[in-house]
Amino acid sequence: MFAAARQTSSLAKRAFSTSSVNNTRVAVLGAAGGIGQPLSLLLKLNPLVSHLSLYDIRLAAGVAADVDHCNTPSKCVGYGPEDGGLEKSLENAEIILIPAGMPRKPGMTRDDLFNANASIVRDLAKAAAKVAPKARIGVIANPVNSTVPIVAEVFKAAGVYDPKRLFGVTTLDIVRASAFLSGIAGTKPAETNVPVVGGHSGPTIVPLLSQLPEGKKVVEQGGEQLAALVKRIQFGGDEVVKAKDGAGSATLSMAYAGADWADSLLRAMNGEQVEICTYVESPLYADKGVSFFSSPVQISSEGTVGEIKPVGQLHPSEQKLLDACLPDLKKNIEAGVNFMKQ
Ligand code: NAD
Ligand code: LMR
User: Fold this and answer.
1) Which residue in 78, 122, 184, 305 has the most C-beta neighbors within 10 A?
2) Does 69 participate in catalysis according to the annotation?
3) What pTM value is reported for the model?
């Protein structure tokens, strides 16, 4: 009890103690779900957020009432689908996170979620294009490789598409790569930053372990340890789906990753130099029909896509992973674009 109270007051102090501009309005669509709830809590604790709008087709008012009692300066308001709640939740939103959609069950691939989630993401994107066309959008709903192109097509159709404002949140892959490699190498996770490029599903997830000293060692040794590490990073989501045994997929680590992604934009908007791997419209492999790709991206002071950096030097084993990623990613992107042509 005492420890919890001390923790609460130090969180509140952190939330009050910033000298930065804490005036950013954030909306979470799908806020009552397994990801949405802890993500909303973490955003409420972020001192750079001034207002949090939570939208869901169920329970959003309750989640917002609960989260709003955390004694941090931001205000949190919930909206359901009645009385134009979706549009109200998006008014003046500057960052929109979309975790709305079905999660996997054992035996499913992320692509198996396409039929359920494509139309959910499309409809939420239509509302965002109408009410908050200038917001930065972070898509969490799977299959990310396809849902991000869907949002792009919706914004194009509405005549408001700015590729610099649209992101797929692939941060969980980076978080996992850091956790798993530091576990092997004995390094500090916070200082073990593995670039993960490509997309967000199985073979489209390409960890570039050779680009940091502790990863380079593992890559050069090769063998079973490398194969197991790469597989664990690419299929970390399956590990959680299996362990949850039908009750869904990663929620808490995803909320952590989503809050970290949002914090990267917020810090960049407050003058910090920030570079993250994130899935954006990208020229890097456009000549191969891959128009969206995750690579290191400099976040501009507007919280938008700045310089898109190339993948850098690859070990031959990483080049193989990249070669395998591109055709799959191309198909996933085409699926999203074709869905919007129907
Ligand atoms: P969940 O079922 O617990 O929550 C989803 C929420 O979305 C529910 O509260 C539901 O009511 C809401 N929802 C459904 N349709 C909606 C609509 N039209 N408008 C608003 N809200 C709507 O699922 P979850 O575990 O939170 O996962 C959500 C999504 O995130 C899934 O598609 C999952 O695959 C994906 N995911 C992505 C990553 C990633 O790395 N990008 C990681 C984990 C999960
Ligand atoms: C993940 O990587 O955990 C998410 O994409 C959820 C999933 O279906 O694996």
Assistant:
1) 78
2) no
3) 0.95
